[in-house]
Design a protein that fits this description.
The complex is a heterodimer of chains A (164) and B (275).
Chain A: H1 11-15, H2 17-20, H3 25-42, H4 49-57, E1 60-63, E2 77-80, H5 85-102, H6 115-133, H7 136-139
Chain B: E1 18-19, E2 27-28, E3 33-35, H1 37-48, E4 64-67, E5 71-74, E6 77-80, E7 84-89, E8 96-103, E9 116-125, E10 128-132, E11 139-142, E12 162-169, E13 177-179, E14 191-192, E15 198-201, H2 204-210, H3 216-222, E16 227-231, E17 236-241, H4 244-256, H5 262-274
The chains are: A mainly alpha (164), B alpha+beta (275).
Chain lengths: 164, 275
Protein backbone atom coordinates (compact mmCIF):
# COMPACT_ATOMS: atom_id res chain seq x y z
CA UNK A 1 0.00 0.00 0.00
CA UNK A 2 1.46 3.26 -1.02
CA UNK A 3 1.16 5.97 1.56
CA UNK A 4 -0.57 9.10 0.38
CA UNK A 5 1.74 11.40 2.26
CA UNK A 6 5.43 10.85 2.88
CA UNK A 7 6.10 10.34 6.55
CA UNK A 8 8.54 12.92 7.82
CA UNK A 9 11.80 11.15 8.56
CA UNK A 10 14.46 12.75 10.74
CA UNK A 11 17.77 14.02 9.38
CA UNK A 12 19.78 11.42 11.28
CA UNK A 13 17.69 8.63 9.94
CA UNK A 14 18.21 9.86 6.42
CA UNK A 15 21.93 9.90 7.01
CA UNK A 16 22.05 6.23 7.86
CA UNK A 17 23.62 3.85 5.38
CA UNK A 18 20.58 1.82 4.48
CA UNK A 19 18.66 4.93 3.55
CA UNK A 20 21.37 6.12 1.22
CA UNK A 21 21.62 3.07 -0.93
CA UNK A 22 18.81 4.34 -3.06
CA UNK A 23 20.22 7.74 -3.64
CA UNK A 24 22.21 8.62 -6.69
CA UNK A 25 25.88 9.41 -6.53
CA UNK A 26 25.50 13.16 -6.70
CA UNK A 27 23.32 13.47 -3.67
CA UNK A 28 25.64 11.09 -1.89
CA UNK A 29 28.63 13.31 -2.59
CA UNK A 30 26.75 16.33 -1.43
CA UNK A 31 25.82 14.69 1.83
CA UNK A 32 29.41 13.59 2.38
CA UNK A 33 30.73 17.06 1.81
CA UNK A 34 28.26 18.51 4.23
CA UNK A 35 29.33 16.06 6.88
CA UNK A 36 33.00 16.83 6.33
CA UNK A 37 32.28 20.52 6.61
CA UNK A 38 30.54 20.05 9.91
CA UNK A 39 33.42 17.99 11.30
CA UNK A 40 36.18 20.35 10.15
CA UNK A 41 34.40 23.38 11.50
CA UNK A 42 34.53 21.86 14.96
CA UNK A 43 38.33 22.00 15.00
CA UNK A 44 39.90 25.24 16.19
CA UNK A 45 42.80 26.81 14.37
CA UNK A 46 44.94 29.92 14.61
CA UNK A 47 43.80 32.52 12.14
CA UNK A 48 47.09 34.35 11.96
CA UNK A 49 48.53 34.28 8.44
CA UNK A 50 51.55 36.37 9.47
CA UNK A 51 52.62 33.84 12.07
CA UNK A 52 52.40 31.04 9.54
CA UNK A 53 54.53 32.98 7.08
CA UNK A 54 57.14 33.65 9.71
CA UNK A 55 57.28 30.02 10.75
CA UNK A 56 57.88 28.92 7.20
CA UNK A 57 60.50 31.48 6.30
CA UNK A 58 62.75 31.58 9.31
CA UNK A 59 65.23 28.94 10.33
CA UNK A 60 64.10 26.04 12.43
CA UNK A 61 65.03 26.28 16.06
CA UNK A 62 64.62 23.22 18.21
CA UNK A 63 64.63 23.35 21.99
CA UNK A 64 66.45 20.65 23.91
CA UNK A 65 66.96 20.60 27.63
CA UNK A 66 69.53 17.87 27.78
CA UNK A 67 73.26 18.36 28.24
CA UNK A 68 74.02 15.08 26.52
CA UNK A 69 73.88 16.70 23.10
CA UNK A 70 76.02 19.64 24.07
CA UNK A 71 79.04 18.04 25.62
CA UNK A 72 80.31 14.51 25.17
CA UNK A 73 80.36 13.23 28.66
CA UNK A 74 81.95 9.99 29.71
CA UNK A 75 80.04 7.13 31.16
CA UNK A 76 78.99 7.79 34.76
CA UNK A 77 80.38 4.65 36.43
CA UNK A 78 84.12 4.46 36.86
CA UNK A 79 86.49 2.09 38.55
CA UNK A 80 90.25 2.42 38.90
CA UNK A 81 93.09 0.01 39.56
CA UNK A 82 90.93 -3.05 39.35
CA UNK A 83 88.54 -2.30 42.19
CA UNK A 84 85.53 -3.53 40.23
CA UNK A 85 86.50 -5.43 37.06
CA UNK A 86 83.01 -5.47 35.60
CA UNK A 87 82.75 -1.72 35.78
CA UNK A 88 86.15 -1.39 34.14
CA UNK A 89 84.98 -3.55 31.28
CA UNK A 90 81.84 -1.45 31.01
CA UNK A 91 83.91 1.72 30.94
CA UNK A 92 85.87 0.52 27.95
CA UNK A 93 82.74 -0.62 26.20
CA UNK A 94 80.68 2.51 26.72
CA UNK A 95 83.41 4.99 26.04
CA UNK A 96 84.43 3.13 22.93
CA UNK A 97 80.82 3.17 21.79
CA UNK A 98 80.73 6.94 22.08
CA UNK A 99 83.91 7.32 20.13
CA UNK A 100 82.79 4.87 17.47
CA UNK A 101 79.66 6.89 16.86
CA UNK A 102 81.67 10.04 16.28
CA UNK A 103 84.39 8.67 14.11
CA UNK A 104 83.23 7.30 10.83
CA UNK A 105 86.21 5.37 9.70
CA UNK A 106 86.22 2.44 7.40
CA UNK A 107 88.49 -0.07 8.98
CA UNK A 108 89.28 -3.32 7.30
CA UNK A 109 88.85 -5.99 9.87
CA UNK A 110 91.75 -8.37 10.14
CA UNK A 111 90.72 -11.81 9.11
CA UNK A 112 92.08 -15.01 10.53
CA UNK A 113 91.28 -17.04 7.46
CA UNK A 114 92.12 -15.73 3.98
CA UNK A 115 89.51 -15.51 1.28
CA UNK A 116 91.05 -18.24 -0.83
CA UNK A 117 91.01 -20.72 1.94
CA UNK A 118 87.38 -19.83 2.65
CA UNK A 119 86.49 -20.56 -0.96
CA UNK A 120 88.27 -23.89 -0.86
CA UNK A 121 86.53 -24.92 2.33
CA UNK A 122 83.13 -24.01 0.98
CA UNK A 123 83.68 -26.21 -2.04
CA UNK A 124 84.21 -29.26 0.10
CA UNK A 125 81.60 -28.20 2.62
CA UNK A 126 78.84 -28.58 0.07
CA UNK A 127 79.89 -32.17 -0.39
CA UNK A 128 80.13 -33.10 3.26
CA UNK A 129 76.80 -31.57 4.22
CA UNK A 130 75.21 -32.94 1.10
CA UNK A 131 76.29 -36.41 2.14
CA UNK A 132 74.20 -36.13 5.26
CA UNK A 133 70.98 -35.63 3.36
CA UNK A 134 71.69 -37.92 0.46
CA UNK A 135 69.84 -41.21 0.16
CA UNK A 136 71.74 -44.47 0.47
CA UNK A 137 71.89 -44.93 -3.28
CA UNK A 138 73.38 -41.49 -3.80
CA UNK A 139 75.94 -41.92 -1.06
CA UNK A 140 77.94 -44.08 -3.42
CA UNK A 141 78.57 -40.93 -5.44
CA UNK A 142 80.21 -39.20 -2.56
CA UNK A 143 83.31 -41.32 -2.52
CA UNK A 144 86.58 -39.93 -1.43
CA UNK A 145 89.79 -39.97 -3.31
CA UNK A 146 93.05 -41.14 -1.88
CA UNK A 147 93.96 -37.59 -0.99
CA UNK A 148 90.78 -37.03 0.89
CA UNK A 149 89.33 -34.69 -1.73
CA UNK A 150 85.83 -35.17 -2.92
CA UNK A 151 85.37 -36.93 -6.23
CA UNK A 152 83.12 -35.20 -8.67
CA UNK A 153 79.58 -36.50 -8.34
CA UNK A 154 78.63 -38.96 -11.09
CA UNK A 155 75.54 -38.19 -13.06
CA UNK A 156 72.44 -39.91 -11.80
CA UNK A 157 71.22 -42.93 -13.72
CA UNK A 158 67.86 -42.05 -15.14
CA UNK A 159 65.38 -44.37 -16.72
CA UNK A 160 66.08 -44.72 -20.46
CA UNK A 161 63.04 -45.39 -22.50
CA UNK A 162 63.60 -48.24 -24.95
CA UNK A 163 63.69 -46.99 -28.46
CA UNK A 164 61.61 -49.69 -29.88
CA UNK B 1 72.43 50.22 46.26
CA UNK B 2 70.58 53.50 46.01
CA UNK B 3 69.89 53.35 42.29
CA UNK B 4 68.37 50.40 40.56
CA UNK B 5 70.27 49.26 37.54
CA UNK B 6 68.33 49.53 34.30
CA UNK B 7 66.91 46.20 33.32
CA UNK B 8 68.08 45.18 29.88
CA UNK B 9 64.77 43.77 28.75
CA UNK B 10 62.78 46.85 29.73
CA UNK B 11 63.18 48.96 26.61
CA UNK B 12 63.38 46.92 23.46
CA UNK B 13 64.32 49.98 21.48
CA UNK B 14 67.21 50.79 23.78
CA UNK B 15 69.16 47.53 23.79
CA UNK B 16 70.18 45.90 20.55
CA UNK B 17 70.08 42.16 20.21
CA UNK B 18 73.59 40.82 19.77
CA UNK B 19 74.73 38.23 17.33
CA UNK B 20 75.22 34.86 18.95
CA UNK B 21 78.45 34.37 17.07
CA UNK B 22 80.08 37.38 18.66
CA UNK B 23 79.09 36.50 22.19
CA UNK B 24 80.56 33.00 22.39
CA UNK B 25 82.41 32.45 25.62
CA UNK B 26 81.10 35.64 27.21
CA UNK B 27 78.73 35.96 30.11
CA UNK B 28 75.09 36.43 29.11
CA UNK B 29 72.25 37.42 31.40
CA UNK B 30 68.63 36.29 31.37
CA UNK B 31 66.48 38.43 29.15
CA UNK B 32 69.04 38.99 26.42
CA UNK B 33 68.13 38.17 22.87
CA UNK B 34 70.61 36.65 20.52
CA UNK B 35 70.53 36.68 16.77
CA UNK B 36 71.41 33.67 14.73
CA UNK B 37 74.03 34.07 12.02
CA UNK B 38 71.64 34.34 9.09
CA UNK B 39 69.53 37.05 10.61
CA UNK B 40 72.35 39.33 11.59
CA UNK B 41 73.40 39.67 7.97
CA UNK B 42 70.05 40.91 6.80
CA UNK B 43 69.58 43.17 9.79
CA UNK B 44 72.91 44.81 9.22
CA UNK B 45 72.10 45.35 5.59
CA UNK B 46 68.73 46.82 6.43
CA UNK B 47 70.30 49.40 8.70
CA UNK B 48 72.64 50.55 5.97
CA UNK B 49 69.66 51.39 3.84
CA UNK B 50 70.64 49.40 0.80
CA UNK B 51 69.69 45.92 -0.14
CA UNK B 52 71.83 43.93 -2.52
CA UNK B 53 70.06 42.12 -5.28
CA UNK B 54 69.07 38.64 -4.29
CA UNK B 55 68.14 35.83 -6.57
CA UNK B 56 65.86 34.21 -4.06
CA UNK B 57 64.35 37.09 -2.19
CA UNK B 58 61.77 35.19 -0.21
CA UNK B 59 63.59 32.00 0.69
CA UNK B 60 66.44 31.92 3.17
CA UNK B 61 68.71 28.99 3.77
CA UNK B 62 67.05 26.88 6.39
CA UNK B 63 69.52 25.89 9.03
CA UNK B 64 68.32 23.71 11.83
CA UNK B 65 69.73 25.20 15.01
CA UNK B 66 69.31 23.52 18.36
CA UNK B 67 68.98 25.67 21.45
CA UNK B 68 70.14 23.79 24.50
CA UNK B 69 69.80 24.34 28.24
CA UNK B 70 69.57 27.94 29.31
CA UNK B 71 68.14 29.17 26.01
CA UNK B 72 64.65 29.48 24.67
CA UNK B 73 63.17 30.20 21.33
CA UNK B 74 61.61 33.65 20.97
CA UNK B 75 60.22 34.19 17.52
CA UNK B 76 63.26 33.64 15.38
CA UNK B 77 65.80 34.65 18.02
CA UNK B 78 67.25 32.93 21.04
CA UNK B 79 66.25 34.20 24.45
CA UNK B 80 68.62 33.64 27.36
CA UNK B 81 66.98 32.26 30.49
CA UNK B 82 69.99 31.47 32.73
CA UNK B 83 73.11 33.46 33.44
CA UNK B 84 76.39 31.94 32.40
CA UNK B 85 78.73 31.65 29.45
CA UNK B 86 77.38 31.05 25.97
CA UNK B 87 78.81 28.02 24.23
CA UNK B 88 78.48 26.62 20.77
CA UNK B 89 79.26 23.31 19.18
CA UNK B 90 79.23 22.52 15.51
CA UNK B 91 77.30 19.41 14.80
CA UNK B 92 78.91 16.42 13.14
CA UNK B 93 76.59 16.48 10.13
CA UNK B 94 77.07 19.79 8.40
CA UNK B 95 73.42 20.30 7.55
CA UNK B 96 72.28 21.50 10.94
CA UNK B 97 73.67 24.71 12.33
CA UNK B 98 75.02 23.32 15.53
CA UNK B 99 73.90 23.73 19.11
CA UNK B 100 74.06 26.73 21.41
CA UNK B 101 73.78 26.51 25.17
CA UNK B 102 74.53 28.42 28.35
CA UNK B 103 77.11 26.96 30.72
CA UNK B 104 75.51 27.83 34.03
CA UNK B 105 75.93 26.68 37.59
CA UNK B 106 73.22 25.42 39.87
CA UNK B 107 72.64 22.96 42.66
CA UNK B 108 69.01 22.13 42.06
CA UNK B 109 68.36 19.36 39.57
CA UNK B 110 65.47 19.32 37.15
CA UNK B 111 64.80 15.89 35.62
CA UNK B 112 65.72 15.66 31.95
CA UNK B 113 64.96 12.73 29.69
CA UNK B 114 67.95 10.53 29.02
CA UNK B 115 70.01 11.62 32.03
CA UNK B 116 71.67 8.98 34.18
CA UNK B 117 71.05 9.72 37.84
CA UNK B 118 71.56 8.20 41.27
CA UNK B 119 68.34 7.82 43.19
CA UNK B 120 67.41 6.62 46.67
CA UNK B 121 64.47 4.26 46.99
CA UNK B 122 61.97 5.80 49.41
CA UNK B 123 58.90 3.64 49.05
CA UNK B 124 57.68 0.44 47.55
CA UNK B 125 54.06 0.46 46.48
CA UNK B 126 52.58 -2.37 44.47
CA UNK B 127 54.45 -2.66 41.20
CA UNK B 128 56.58 0.45 41.39
CA UNK B 129 59.28 1.95 43.54
CA UNK B 130 59.36 5.61 44.45
CA UNK B 131 62.86 6.95 43.96
CA UNK B 132 64.07 10.29 45.23
CA UNK B 133 66.27 11.93 42.58
CA UNK B 134 66.53 15.42 44.02
CA UNK B 135 63.82 16.92 41.86
CA UNK B 136 60.44 18.31 42.77
CA UNK B 137 58.78 14.93 42.93
CA UNK B 138 60.00 11.38 43.38
CA UNK B 139 60.43 9.40 40.19
CA UNK B 140 58.66 6.13 39.69
CA UNK B 141 60.57 2.97 38.78
CA UNK B 142 58.73 -0.14 37.73
CA UNK B 143 60.01 -3.43 39.06
CA UNK B 144 60.02 -4.83 35.52
CA UNK B 145 62.53 -2.24 34.40
CA UNK B 146 65.51 -4.26 35.54
CA UNK B 147 67.51 -6.68 33.49
CA UNK B 148 66.11 -10.17 33.67
CA UNK B 149 63.10 -9.17 35.74
CA UNK B 150 59.80 -10.90 35.21
CA UNK B 151 56.58 -11.01 37.15
CA UNK B 152 57.78 -14.07 39.04
CA UNK B 153 61.39 -13.01 39.28
CA UNK B 154 61.36 -9.71 41.14
CA UNK B 155 64.51 -7.67 41.59
CA UNK B 156 66.01 -7.52 45.04
CA UNK B 157 65.47 -3.86 45.84
CA UNK B 158 64.82 -2.59 49.37
CA UNK B 159 63.84 0.82 50.69
CA UNK B 160 67.01 2.83 51.16
CA UNK B 161 68.93 1.26 48.30
CA UNK B 162 70.83 3.35 45.78
CA UNK B 163 69.78 3.03 42.17
CA UNK B 164 71.64 4.15 39.05
CA UNK B 165 69.16 4.61 36.23
CA UNK B 166 68.03 6.88 33.43
CA UNK B 167 64.87 8.85 32.79
CA UNK B 168 62.45 7.82 30.09
CA UNK B 169 59.82 10.42 30.87
CA UNK B 170 60.77 13.77 32.33
CA UNK B 171 58.79 16.89 31.63
CA UNK B 172 57.10 19.54 33.66
CA UNK B 173 53.63 18.12 33.24
CA UNK B 174 54.15 14.54 34.32
CA UNK B 175 55.74 12.60 37.12
CA UNK B 176 59.25 11.53 36.09
CA UNK B 177 59.75 7.87 35.30
CA UNK B 178 63.06 6.08 35.29
CA UNK B 179 64.31 2.68 34.25
CA UNK B 180 67.42 0.63 34.87
CA UNK B 181 67.53 -0.89 31.44
CA UNK B 182 68.38 0.44 28.01
CA UNK B 183 66.32 0.20 24.84
CA UNK B 184 67.82 -3.20 23.98
CA UNK B 185 66.93 -4.66 27.35
CA UNK B 186 70.46 -4.73 28.78
CA UNK B 187 71.45 -3.22 32.09
CA UNK B 188 74.70 -1.55 30.97
CA UNK B 189 75.80 -0.89 34.49
CA UNK B 190 72.47 0.46 35.71
CA UNK B 191 70.58 -1.00 38.63
CA UNK B 192 71.23 -1.24 42.32
CA UNK B 193 74.57 0.15 43.43
CA UNK B 194 76.43 -2.17 45.77
CA UNK B 195 77.02 -2.15 49.47
CA UNK B 196 79.03 0.38 51.49
CA UNK B 197 80.49 3.48 49.99
CA UNK B 198 79.50 7.08 50.54
CA UNK B 199 76.95 9.26 48.75
CA UNK B 200 77.37 13.03 48.72
CA UNK B 201 76.05 15.98 46.79
CA UNK B 202 77.88 18.53 44.65
CA UNK B 203 76.84 21.18 42.13
CA UNK B 204 75.68 20.14 38.70
CA UNK B 205 78.42 22.05 36.94
CA UNK B 206 81.09 20.09 38.77
CA UNK B 207 79.64 16.79 37.60
CA UNK B 208 79.80 17.92 34.00
CA UNK B 209 83.34 19.14 34.51
CA UNK B 210 84.42 15.83 36.01
CA UNK B 211 82.77 13.83 33.27
CA UNK B 212 84.45 15.76 30.48
CA UNK B 213 86.59 13.49 28.33
CA UNK B 214 89.87 15.21 29.18
CA UNK B 215 89.38 15.78 32.88
CA UNK B 216 92.69 15.78 34.73
CA UNK B 217 91.14 15.47 38.16
CA UNK B 218 89.74 12.04 37.46
CA UNK B 219 92.96 10.84 35.92
CA UNK B 220 94.94 11.93 38.94
CA UNK B 221 92.42 10.49 41.37
CA UNK B 222 92.55 7.18 39.58
CA UNK B 223 96.25 6.88 40.24
CA UNK B 224 95.95 7.18 44.01
CA UNK B 225 94.47 3.85 45.04
CA UNK B 226 91.86 1.34 43.86
CA UNK B 227 88.43 2.93 44.00
CA UNK B 228 85.03 3.06 42.38
CA UNK B 229 82.97 6.18 41.61
CA UNK B 230 79.49 6.61 40.23
CA UNK B 231 78.41 10.04 38.95
CA UNK B 232 74.76 10.99 38.78
CA UNK B 233 73.72 13.96 36.68
CA UNK B 234 71.55 15.12 39.56
CA UNK B 235 74.60 16.23 41.47
CA UNK B 236 75.10 13.04 43.48
CA UNK B 237 78.37 11.14 43.61
CA UNK B 238 78.89 7.74 45.21
CA UNK B 239 82.43 6.66 46.05
CA UNK B 240 83.87 3.51 47.48
CA UNK B 241 87.41 2.52 48.37
CA UNK B 242 88.97 -0.23 50.43
CA UNK B 243 89.00 1.58 53.76
CA UNK B 244 86.73 4.22 55.24
CA UNK B 245 89.58 6.69 55.51
CA UNK B 246 90.38 6.45 51.81
CA UNK B 247 86.70 6.88 50.96
CA UNK B 248 86.50 10.03 53.05
CA UNK B 249 89.66 11.46 51.52
CA UNK B 250 88.22 10.86 48.08
CA UNK B 251 84.92 12.52 48.97
CA UNK B 252 86.71 15.56 50.35
CA UNK B 253 88.86 15.92 47.28
CA UNK B 254 85.94 15.76 44.91
CA UNK B 255 83.95 18.29 46.88
CA UNK B 256 86.84 20.70 47.21
CA UNK B 257 88.24 20.50 43.70
CA UNK B 258 85.52 22.76 42.41
CA UNK B 259 87.06 25.80 44.04
CA UNK B 260 90.72 24.93 43.77
CA UNK B 261 93.19 26.11 41.21
CA UNK B 262 95.34 23.65 39.34
CA UNK B 263 98.41 24.32 41.49
CA UNK B 264 96.59 23.81 44.76
CA UNK B 265 95.18 20.58 43.45
CA UNK B 266 98.57 19.31 42.37
CA UNK B 267 100.01 20.13 45.78
CA UNK B 268 97.29 18.18 47.52
CA UNK B 269 97.74 15.20 45.26
CA UNK B 270 101.49 15.28 45.78
CA UNK B 271 100.99 15.27 49.53
CA UNK B 272 98.59 12.38 49.33
CA UNK B 273 100.87 10.37 47.11
CA UNK B 274 103.61 10.70 49.71
CA UNK B 275 101.57 9.53 52.66
Amino acid sequence: MAAERKTKLSKNLLRMKFMQRGLDSETKKQLEEEEKKIISEEYWYLDLPELKEKELEKSFIIEEQSFLLCEDLLYGRMSFRGFNPEVEKLMLQMNAKNKAEEEEEDETVEVDVSDEEMARRYETLVGTIGKKFAKKRDRANYEEDENGNMKPIKTKKMFLKPQD
Amino acid sequence: MAETLPVASESPAGCKARAARNVLGQVVLPGEELLLPEQEETDGVGVAGERPLRLNAGMRSRLRVVCGPGLRRCGDRLLVTKCGRLRHKESGSGSSGGIYWVDSQQKRYVPVKGDHVIGIVTAKSGDIFKVDVGGSEPASLSYLAFEGATKRNRPNVQVGDLIYGQFVVANKDMEPEMVCIDSCGRANGMGVIGQDGLLFKVTLGLIRKLLAPDCEIIQEVGKLYPLEIVFGMNGRIWVKAKTIQQTLILANILEACEHMTTEQRKQIFARLAES
